[in-house]
Amino acid sequence: MSGAEGPRSTGDGAADAGAADAGAADDGAATVRGIRPLARPPDTEVAVPGSKSLTNRALVAAGLARGRSTLTGVLDADDTRAMLTGLEALGVGIVRSHAGTIVTVDGVAGAPTVTDPRIDVRLSGTTARFLAPVLARGDGTSHLDGLPPFRRRPMGPSIAALRALGCTVTEHGTPDHLPITVTGGPVAGGEVAVAGEVSSQFLSGLLLAGAAFPDGLTVRVSSPLVSVPYVEMTAEVLRWFGVELTRPDEATFVVAGGGLRASDVAIEPDASAATYLLAAAAITGGRVRVAGLTSASCQGDAGFAAVLGRMGAEVVVDEHGTEVRSTGRLRGIDVDLGAMSDTAQTLAAVAVFAEGPTRITGIGFIRAKETDRIAAMVTELRKLGIDAREEEDGLVVHPGRPSPGVVATYDDHRMAMSFALLGLVVPGIAIADPGCVAKTFPTYFEVLEQLRR
User: Fold this and answer.
1) Per the residue annotation, which of 79, 120, 342, 433 is the catalytic one?
2) pTM here?
3) Is beta strand 321-325 parallel, antiparallel or unpaired with respect to 118-120?
4) Residue ranges of domains in the chain, CATH in brackets
5) Per-residue pLDDT tens for 75-97?
6) 342 is catalytic
């Protein structure tokens, strides 16, 4: 099947009971949102919210800095709200305005004070893994916990690093998972090792916190590092706040002491969020431009547009934004997405409409994300009649016409957003628990509807 066939008119299907108006319906047990196929290919420019990854990194840096910082373009979503309340629990002054997109931060000059001993990370990996090392600079005891799905996600590298730095960590449930109680030193500095194969967030958290250590911090990565562009993003954010990250060798990261200085920064649009809109253009025969996601982006996921280009789409990235235009055909490819694993589910949806199979490799570590994303993708594609199979570090997707069905989302916002794309092309696709998109893109379905204008 090719993207050249474009959107089809809505027909009868198993999921159409709630799909006619693309709204959400509650059957009393679970909420399901039907997705209505586009009546014509899109030809539009859209705006996506600010980058979650940049927002939460900048919030931590501003919170630890000396002085007042103003962040504009901030993402207002569940993950960033978790970070904001977590920072407030550590004495950081926060003022939100303009629907939460502008945040003024009064930093604690590297000396957080525990004002609320309970920090709820909700479902936010960046909040848990960035704030845990910050607790090493605290003057008291904090209890770090999250919602039940997050308690299944690994925290072992953060816990091991905290103990190596001299903090007392008590685990109250499964070892190497939340909930935990942490008593800091406060730690002045030192050296620590951290595993790199599970998530780069553990390293990024140590580097952000380490910049506030009076004597600095040296971090040695003890195993192959995944998602390297996210560490490069962390280094960029540290530079915004006056901190240079050095690397004496490939496995060693050093942040010098001296602290962070306040800074006013603008957060660029979320490249991961943009992938869904750009992919929509490729599979529906249309054109979509994402404003503000420019050639100067520091986000690794901005490279997803080039992947669509390899599949046959026309791509333009300039100083104003990123545009994808369908050329009428898509071809399957082999691609390593280890550097931008959050785009894997988007690509799996695109692969359904390509000519020939698509193999996605290098993403074995995403089995420890919100869910086992590889297994979830394959399960839901097969449920819709698409030939897909798991591999050790990825999956293979063969093209086909999806059958009507309700897609389970596994408490995973990216499952909801990526599989909704299928419903723009074929009738009868519905998304279970659509509200999970609030984690990073609360207005996703409203923005998706803009493709109809």
Assistant:
1) 342
2) 0.92
3) unpaired
4) 3-49+269-452 (3.65.10.10), 52-266 (3.65.10.10)
5) 999 999 999 999 999 999 999 99
6) yes
